[in-house]
Automatic annotation (TrEMBL):
Transmembrane segments: 52-71, 77-96
Protein name as annotated: Uncharacterized protein
Keywords: Membrane, Transmembrane, Transmembrane helix
């Protein structure tokens, strides 16, 4: 079975978390998606790039989630979510996925 790159898992958690929260109107469900994907990505980051890199990427994941809120007020919700998801995916690829 092919491994899903951590960049896809992380970006999918940000986009999927927002999508689930928006479409179900239950922020908690979106938070579950965000947390589960973040934990899965963190495990991959640790395995592929080590604990320090995993900590930095996890911090970036949480910061991206937080940054999407004020950014959404300027550019709209979906563009903000896609923007921060792309940034996290790029960082994840650069630090962890391209090594594997």
């Amino acid at each position: 079975m092919a491994k899903v790159p951590s960049a896809v898992v992380a970006a999918g958690g940000l986009v999927g978390g927002y999508g689930v929260a928006r479409w179900t109107r239950k922020r908690e469900l979106g938070g579950v998606v965000l947390a589960v994907a973040g934990a899965a990505a963190a495990q991959q980051w640790r395995r592929q790039a080590g604990g320090t890199a995993a900590g930095a990427l996890t911090g970036a994941y949480v910061a991206a989630f937080a940054a999407s809120h004020p950014l959404a007020k300027k550019v709209g919700a979906w563009p903000a979510v896609f923007g921060v998801a792309g940034a996290v995916a790029l960082a994840s690829w650069a630090v962890a996925d391209r090594r594997g």
